[in-house]
Amino acid sequence: MKPVDWLARVRHDLVKRMVWPARDRRDSGSSPAPGELSPRLIDDEGAPITADALWTALAADAPPAADVAAFGAAVARAAAAGEAGDLQGVIALETAFADLARSLEDKS
Q: Which helix (H) or strand (E) holds 42?
């Protein structure tokens, strides 16, 4: 899989599903309800999956130059932030994704 295609999948399947609800809640100026920022993710077969498990599956297809460890840690922090209702902690995943994408651009 090309790095650009892999990044698009990571963005679509994981990042936007975790970050967009937090961004929407931040932009509305209101506090999240309990559990609202915990993503409801699905695997390739449509079954529920945790953020960490989904990231593990996506990381298995990562380009060799991808820093999966650093981004995996960011996913874990964002998932924990979601559980805690921490908007900024979840939104920080966007920066980690941008860093991941940039690192692949630098190595291609």
A: strand 41-42
Confidence of residue 52 (pLDDT cuts 50, 70, 90): very high
CA distances, 21 to each of 65, 84, 85, 101 (Å) = 30, 14, 11, 22
- The tokens describing 62, both together, are 């990562």
* Count of residues in the chain: 108
- pLDDT category at 59 given cuts 50, 70, 90 is very high
Determine contact, residues 22/33, Cβ cutoff 8 Å. no
pTM: 0.91
CA distance 10 to 85: 23
Residue 108 has pLDDT above 80, yes or no: no
CA angle 95, 58, 27 (to 5 degrees): 35
> Bridge partners of 41?
49
Tokens coding 70: 């650093």
Phi, psi (rounded to 5 degrees) for 15: -60, -55
